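Protein Record: Sequence and Backbone Structure Tokens
======================================================
Tokens: labelled as protein backbone structure tokens, with as many entries as the chain has residues.
Task: work out the structure tokens from the sequence, keeping to the layout shown below.
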Amino acid sequence: MVIVRIKTLKKYGLRWALGLLLTALAVLQVSGALRIDAVERMDTFFADLRMRLVKPVLDPRIVVVDIDEKSIAEVGHFPWNRKIVAQLVTQLTEHYGVAAAGFDIVFAEADNTSGYDVLAQLAQRELKDVGGFSARVAGLKEQLDYDGLLVKALQDQPVVLGYNVAENQRKGKLPNPFFNTDTLNGRELPAIASNGYLANLDRLQDAAASGGIFTALPDPDGILRHTALLMRIGDGFYPTLSLATAAVALQARAITPLWETNVAEMSARQRANGGLDTLLMFVGQEKVPLHIAVGENLSNLIEFRGTGGPKGGAFPYVSAADVLAGRVKKEVLADRIILIGTTAPGLLDLRATPVSSAYPGVEVHANMIKSILDDRFKVRPDYADGIEAIQVLVVGGVLALALGVLAPLPSMLLAAAMAGAVFGFNYWSYTEMDAVLKLAMTLVLIAAVFVLNVAWGYFFEVRRNRGLVSRFGEYVAPELVAQMAENPAQYNMDGESRELTVMFVDVRGFTTISEGLTPKQLREYINLYLTAMSEDIRSAHQGTLDKYIGDAVMAFWGAPVHFSDHARRAVATSLLMQASARRLNDDFVARGWPELKIGIGLNSGLMHVGDMGSNIRRAYTVMGDAVNLGSRLEGITKVYGVGIAVGEATRAAAPEFCYRELDLVRVKGKNEPVAIFEPLALDAEVDDATRAELANWHAALAAVRAQRWDEAEATLAALQALSPQRGLYQLYRDRIAHYRAHPPGESWDGVTTYDTK
């Protein structure tokens, strides 16, 4: 018997020891003694996955009034004037009798769209002598004061206005805080704090029942998972839109922090919050107490339900246009909590969340309101560490001993059964007990012990040999991968800041193209186009192919392999791509397919480059203001009728090319104007006729900026006669006509401002 045990120990002892060692390391991880970032990221991934697995149940108590594409088509472009907003408020409060209405919109600027200011100026100046005109204008003041109309609509109604926190800015008026530092009696209450805000006009906030913060604070990976219930501004603690709207709907009389005074009985959550136990809300005339659990920094995990939007399955959606027109049945909105927001893609109120990369921001507040009404929040209990440690010990011990002696198939079945049981228990704890337990370390341990006993040697060897190619092979040309493989220590995917050049490419009129082709033809069309563009980027000038965004392509030069001439390579590639597009177009037209035209935007500057994204999907990409400008430049190529637009930094970094200056623009998101240019060819390849045309064009541009309209128009007319196909000349002739009718004034700096992306 002893001999048998010795043989067994010799045969399986090393595997058992290594398996138990892995189990011990896992216990250290879940207990907090050892921190493995990869496991933390996996826990985030599994938490997101778990949330996506929960099937939503429609909650009719909370309704989203959606400023959707239908509303914009019927009512007009957004933002709407305050008269329309006032009508919407009146419909909701007086016609439908809602319990509360929260605006996921801020009204920070006065509404001057009625034209009253213009009439008042005329009455004081040009038309002051016209009999009765001044009196008539004065009589119109009340009905043309759109902000005043909204004030009247808000008076004595359960409406909550949303606003943003903003560092180093104080604009508008804050609502009354729920409580302030004096209420704390010297206690410290950790909270997300801001020294500024972008709030609503004073008279609008004074008329509203309350106000709430709708600022979204995503995690470091850019995914929104938590939201504050209260935030601190100055000495006051102000509610978020969800808490403020719920308080108005429940007719809360007061909200105050409730403290745990016995230090020995404090939970970890209470200790992290300075002893705070819950927020105590007194509801209704009877002041019924409602306890609202809060997490660290007065923030809670958002329980996302469904995939968001009208088809998400969690909350009813009605179009704002239908509310304005009274087409919604009263029972749908009566006594409901209403949130007014937008899902229209162009209005950019979409958030990256665990359940969707484009989740309506307004529905974030709806989820929190539901949790408040149900008094159910997902929390990590104090006993979580203990449960996770016991789970790791049991699972690791059983697998370490069993897998070493089992054949491959039983080993696979046992490991799969263990993983299924662990995941099932975790899911049950989340859905039934509202307990957030970590899962990744246990699953990693199962996988590690299984791999150790089956194929660990082969697995790790292959992973080492192919790591570099698998990570960079899809981004850069094969010859660059080979170069990187010779000295892999010099390259990694860690984030860093570099001077790079970024490119954005898009197909003009792709919607029309897709409508004119069968699915099979469209697939071949887009595949031929993307292949040609990708080959030009990767092979010709060794660019890094970032991603495809539908029919758009994003690329950059200068990383992971450094090129000092990244701007030159990018400009040369853009010219090559336009030539490739023309060749493709000839082929497409010969096949009877729609015409192919592309627009390209280039910009150079300091960018953040590295492996970025979420725990669900990551990519080696670039981010930063310089990247955003590159995207804007691609978007405005169609305005100027050109195939390529580059920023002034790119032009300065690649002076060997000949450029046509297009304009001096201020794009959305940037305050400083930027000169933009169209590269034509290498400077040495430009003929005399083109140089003469460029000289005349730049003279015309200078005349426009100097407001010498006659001179500019004459030069442009001559240029257009020589090159009638160039839309740039007609664009500036139209601008001159506009400036004649609406003189820009002596202080005009010649800058064209774009308010849209």
Remarks:
- The longest strand covers residues 598-613.
